Amino acid sequence: MANSAIYQIRGGLFPDEGVPPAYWPASGDLKVEKLSARYSLDGPRVLHDISFEVRSGERVGIVGRTGSGKSSLTLALLQCIITEGKVYYDGIPIDRINLDALRSSITLIPQVPELLSGTLRQNVDPFQQYDDATLNDALRSAGLFSLQSNTIGGRVTLDTPIASGGTNLSVGQRQILALARAIVRQSKLLILDEATSAIDYATDAVIQASLRQELDKGVTLLTVAHRLQTIMDADKVMVLDAGRIVEFGKPSELLKDEKGTLRALVDKSDDKETLYAMASHVG
Q1: Bond into 110 cis (ω within 30)
Q2: CA dihedral defined by 209, 69, 241, 275, rounded to 10 degrees?
Q3: Tens digits of per-residue pLDDT, 227-268?
Q4: How far is CA 193 from the centre of its chain?
Q5: Are 62 and 249 in contact (CB under 8 A)?
Q6: What is the pTM of this model?
Q7: In the chain, which ranges are continuous DSSP H helix?
């Protein structure tokens, strides 16, 4: 049954097939054509004919009410649920790529990242591929100063012990380590699935600044947002409702629609003026 399920989900490709070219992915280009998804073979669709295109290096915010399909979209891009339609990542259909290659080329930062028992170094570089200077640069870029200001045992270093699950760190500190790990991996596609929804605004601001300033210009960033402040200065905003895209474009353009969904969300916010100001500065 397991092999049968894999066969149907992967369109006939078994996990040991579909090895992409060595240079792939060279860019973060993402093209989605009529993507639908469901959680079981006989279950209802949770995504319906979604189509969009993101150029390499673009920052896209994804918003919508609970149940709109935001997390389902991220799972579909990682081929974690059953999909129909086509997704092209750097020009190659992802259903032709084996799961190990696909998922190792994309970095997902969830709401509560998992950390391993060991040192900070082992968590940022579990396969011991990088030198200390590279790891320290990544930690600094991710906002290490915020982590150090709240540390439980003096200055944080690569040898600082991390408890199983990162329980000796705050959620915000775990997010900073997860972001440092993403910077080290140099993935061309980075997905934040409500990654900052459980942390305070100040730490969120640190992480968002790091994402804007420190990521390579060729990294595509998809941010499933809890706070509108997190995504209002994105290049584009996607609004989902009931598994469908209802709006997609520059936030400043979407806010011009008096009957638009994004505008309705912003107008209800206590930070309405700040959000409009953020959107107006997007080029």
Answers
A1: no
A2: -10
A3: 898 899 899 999 999 999 999 999 999 999 999 999 999 999
A4: 5
A5: no
A6: 0.84
A7: 2-9, 70-77, 99-104, 120-124, 132-142, 144-149, 171-185, 201-214, 251-254, 261-267, 272-280
